[in-house]
Structures are given as C-alpha cells and as structure tokens.
C-alpha cells in the first residue's frame, strides 16, 4: 500500500511527514547530510531523538533557522512513538524538548523552535494522542512556511544594498542550506540575481569545517551565481584590492544591543571591513534575536571537538601532544555592524520587544 506521505522540499530541511489526518502512519523527517557536501548529496530519515540530536550535533543539519525547523519537525516525528496516555505523552514531550534544545547552545533559533512547539501543545490542551500529534505537526509546518517567508523578506530588503556588479563577501553558510527558504545572508544575493543584477560573491572557506567552501560555494554555483572561494586569511587582501563592496553574514544569536554571535571568524572579518571602510551587515530573521540578553557577553559559545582542527582535511594537520582551542562562534560587537537586514526591514540597535518583535 502506498504511504500517504506529503513531501515538502526545501534545501536545508526536507520533510516527509504524513498529513495531520493520517498521522497514525509512520512519518519521518528527511534531511540532507550537509557533512557530505559537495562530494555527495545523501539524504537520511530521522524519527528518534538520539538520531535527531546527533544530526544536529554533527552538523548534518546546520545553520540557525534550519536547526530550529528541523527540531520542530523532528519533535513531530519523534512524538509518534510516545505513549497514548496524555500525561505520559506530555512528560515525554517536555523531556525530549529539553534534550533537543541543548543539542547546540549558540543558535537561539533551536530553543525558540522547541519552546514554540511546547507552547502550542500546552495551549491545545488536547486529551488524545492523535490530536496532539496533529497540532505539533501543524505548528512545525507553520514554522517551516514562516521561515520561507522570513527569508524572502530579508532578500527583498537586502537586495536594495546590491547594485549591478556588486562584490559581496560572506562567511560560513547562511544560505538556502541553513534555512527553509533562500537563506539570510544569501537571500539578498538571490533576490538581486533574480532581478537581473550580476553579483560576485567571495565566500570565505570558513575553517575548521569549511561551510563557506563546501556549502556556500556549492549552492551559489548550483544557482548560476558567480562565486569565488577564498581561504579565510585572504579576506583582508581582497578587501584591499577593492573587490568587496559589502560584507553580509548571518547570525546565530543577536543581543538587544546588537552584539552578534556568528561562525568563528566573523569578528575578524568585521574588524577588517571597518579598517577598509566597507559596510558590514548582519542578515537575520526575528527568530535569531534574543532580547533577554542585554549584550553579547551572555551568549553561550559552543566549543567543539579539537579533532576538527587536528584532522582538518582527513589527515593530521597538527602534531600530537599539543593543545587546541576550538570555539565554533565568536561575538561581533554592535559598533562594527553597519545594519541588520531583517524580515522587518534594515534596522539598527538597540532592539526592544516594543520596537521589533
Ligand atoms: O556551525 P554552523 O554551520 O551551524 O554555523 C552556521 C552559522 O554560523 C550561520 O552563519 C548562522 O547559523 C546563520 S544561518 C542562516
């Protein structure tokens, strides 16, 4: 018998879950394993919590909005295996939500997504499992659709900053692979290109995990946009040579004063941009703002396995017996940021609940 599965295809997050009405049937979250790009395009299915947490931790799915969407949809897939008893169902959901929210600490989108699903579930006050699953799935799909809209809005606002022939420098991957839509930092590039402008993108390689050269270059090239990959230590030179008109990066968490956590190396790029008098923009949806933090000092920074540096390219890239420091993110002070390209327009801090969210 054919499985009644609806496929919803996006880049960073690919979903195959049954329609809410048929949730009795097993549904799975289908993800593109980004660790294998650009060599191989491999998809895998997830419907249990350890697999989902592992996929997020090892960066099979990555990028702040994509992690949030994957977590929300993953909650729906995982919850299918919960008990029928309403109290036991609710307890399992709360327990797994906390485990999921802690899978990676820096991107606030993850906790935001998990808490949004929990809030929807609590509000529904549903007594039977079938309705509970349907409301979780609807909440998750709504988030996915919303993320697509948020990316489009960022693209529309940001495209105004990109005249024909513009040279854009970006760091890490904040494109389609990192969201459910066209990305954050890359959304303006896609929007400008769609309106016929020729845009050149310089993509920092982004050591140690090479999201810039593996992912940003892959997706831009696939869309026919001119992309040059440079090693991280070349950014200063390409700025000095006059190749860069604007820097646009994504964000993992933005504090109320505008301090912004993003992939390690972003801070260095911002310092270089200031020296060369090049505008430096952060592109992010409202789901990446954490207004509970006054400044960037409170942003938790993920530290990752030293092996990522020690065996950078599948071989030893440093000797045994030495120490490593491998923070995955850094915080760029607000004073280095020209503006924030958001789904509500181009904004400047300070951000407040009244003024923004
Ligand atoms: O460790 P990653 O690959 O998840 O880091 C991703 C980034 O730093 C992105 O720039 C950020 O999440 C924004 S994605 C739209």
Explain the overall architecture.
This protein has two domains: 2-151, Four Helix Bundle (Hemerythrin (Met), subunit A) (Up-down Bundle); 156-347, Translation initiation factor eif-2b, domain 2 (Rossmann fold, 3-Layer(aba) Sandwich), CATH 3.40.50.10470. It has ten helices and 15 strands. The chain has helices spanning 49-57, 64-79, 86-101, 108-124, 129-159, 187-194, 211-222, 235-240, 266-275, 307-310; strands at 5-9, 14-18, 28-32, 43-46, 167-170, 200-204, 226-230, 246-249, 253-255, 260-263, 280-283, 289-290, 329-332, 339-342, 345-347. A hairpin with a 4-residue loop joins β1 and β2. The chain is globular and about 65 Å long. Residues 59, 62-65, 107, 172, 174, 178-179, 183-184, 211, 250-252, 262-263, 328 line the site of 5-S-methyl-1-O-phosphono-5-thio-D-ribulose.
């Amino acid at each position: 018998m054919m499985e009644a599965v609806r496929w919803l295809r996006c880049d960073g997050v690919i979903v195959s879950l049954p329609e809410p009405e048929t949730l009795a049937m097993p549904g799975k979250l289908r993800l593109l394993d980004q660790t294998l790009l650009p060599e191989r395009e491999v998809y895998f299915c997830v419907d249990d919590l350890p697999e989902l947490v592992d996929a997020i931790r090892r960066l099979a799915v990555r990028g702040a909005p994509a992690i949030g969407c994957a977590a929300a949809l993953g909650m729906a897939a995982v919850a299918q295996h919960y008990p029928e008893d309403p109290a036991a169902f609710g307890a399992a959901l709360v327990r797994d939500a906390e485990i999921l929210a802690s899978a990676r600490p820096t991107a606030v989108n993850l906790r935001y997504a998990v808490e949004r699903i929990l809030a929807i579930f609590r509000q529904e006050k549903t007594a039977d499992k079938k309705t509970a699953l349907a409301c979780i799935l609807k909440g998750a799909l709504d988030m996915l659709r919303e993320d697509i809209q948020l990316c489009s809005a960022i693209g529309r606002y940001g495209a105004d900053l990109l005249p024909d022939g513009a040279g854009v420098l970006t760091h890490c991957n904040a494109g389609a692979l990192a969201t459910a839509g066209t990305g954050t930092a890359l959304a303006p590039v896609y929007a400008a290109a769609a309106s016929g402008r020729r845009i050149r993108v310089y993509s920092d390689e982004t050591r140690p995990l090479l999201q810039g050269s593996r992912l940003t270059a892959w997706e831009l090239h696939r869309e026919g946009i001119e992309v040059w990959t440079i090693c991280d230590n070349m950014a200063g030179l390409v700025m000095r040579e006059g190749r860069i008109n604007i820097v646009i990066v994504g964000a993992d968490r933005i504090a109320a004063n505008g301090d912004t956590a993003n992939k390690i190396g972003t801070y260095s790029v911002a310092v270089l941009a200031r020296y060369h008098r090049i505008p430096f923009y952060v592109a992010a949806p409202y789901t990446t703002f954490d207004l509970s933090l006054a400044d960037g000092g409170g942003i938790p920074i993920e530290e990752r396995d030293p092996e990522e540096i020690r065996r950078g390219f599948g071989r030893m890239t440093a000797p045994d017996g030495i120490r490593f420091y491998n923070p995955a993110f850094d915080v760029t002070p607000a004073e280095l940021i020209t503006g924030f390209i958001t789904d509500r327009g181009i904004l400047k801090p300070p951000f407040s609940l009244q003024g923004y969210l």
